[in-house]
Amino acid sequence: MLSRTADNLYWLSRYVERAEYLARILEATQRLTALPLAYSGTTNEWESAVSTAGCVNSFFAAFDEANEETVTEFLAFSPANPSSIRNCFEVARTNARAVRTALTMEMWDAINGGWHEIRSFGGVGATREELARFLRLVQECSLRFDGSAYRTMLRNDAYWFSRLGVFIERADNTARILDVKYHLLLPAEQHVGGPLDYFQWAAILRSVSALTSYHWVYRESLKPWLIADLLILNDQMPRSLASCYQNLVQNLDYIGRAYGRQGAAQRQARKVRTRLENSRMDDVFQGGLHEFIGEFVADNNQLGTTISQQYLI
After folding, report:
1. Where would you tag: which of 30, 176, 183, 249 has the fewest CB atoms within 10 A of its CB?
2. Measured distance CA(46)–CA(44) in Å, rounded
3. pLDDT of res. 125
4. What is the DSSP letter of 101?
């Protein structure tokens, strides 16, 4: 496979996954801000949404204040934000057109139809109900594309490179959600375990479709250390860091065997996977969750760079 084709497939999947993640963050933030004043606390959840998306500097270069109108415009529709939902689907469709022959008909229909639907949404002046429908549409478009890839693609290098994009992006997103929750969302004067804490954690779990899974696994009320365990170390949770790296190792090994050689990307993915396998939540919290996640995000970004250098350039 040409490196250009592999690169387009990789980034096509990353941008679709990123658009869905942003839609989930905006949806979770809407839920938090809709809570009664007794539960909503004194934090700026809209600013935390920008922090979770990793674009604080570019946001405040464009806007003076983080509120529902400005954050929604920037993360969902702004042409000035390269990672806005609309721009993510624009770039994803451009990549899909470049590798049209490497996609199945169902995959092309999913990304092309999703792009037309999302582009037709007005955005400016939308009501909360209209925005909620838009965010649900984005998630449905992403699920249609991901499902069509899973159910129709040959298990060859085209499929493996597209899966690498999904799981690199998904791991980064899950890590950022956890980090922001612990350091930005909960006000200093609020006690962990209080009503504000409960509703925030429920919103975070919903944003990664994990609230029901949490209760199935732990059968307890929401506890921060158990939520962190689910989203970091539990292989059964599809969006956990451990599950993402299980899939990254597997798909990189498929590529290595198909091309007849292993490389730095395979070694680095296995290193991170082994670290996650050998970690325990007591040790993670003792050493600092923020530090653990910060190191993970750096390693994940490095793996993305290594994959690009090894295969995509």
Report:
1. 183
2. 5
3. 65
4. G
